[in-house]
Amino acid sequence: MGRRRTPGEIAYALVIGGLAALALVILVGPILVVLATSFTDSRSIRFPPTGFSLRWY
């Protein structure tokens, strides 16, 4: 068994985990938005999408 972690170590791990999750959302979020909007049938970005198309692929 490993040693018990101190409250400071637990807090540090939570902060690092939260920052990693935030970085993931910031980096991957825009890619997911562009991917989702690329399937619309219009030439410009509209939300909500008016239709579905594979035109750009």
Automatic annotation (TrEMBL):
The lineage of its organism: Bacteria, Pseudomonadati, Pseudomonadota, Alphaproteobacteria, Acetobacterales. The keyword Nucleotide-binding does not apply. Keywords: Membrane, Transmembrane, Transmembrane helix. GO terms for cellular component: membrane. The chain crosses the membrane at residues 12-39. This is ABC transporter permease. It is found in: Membrane. The keyword Membrane applies. It comes from uncultured Acetobacteraceae bacterium. It is a multi-pass membrane protein. It comes from the Bacteria.
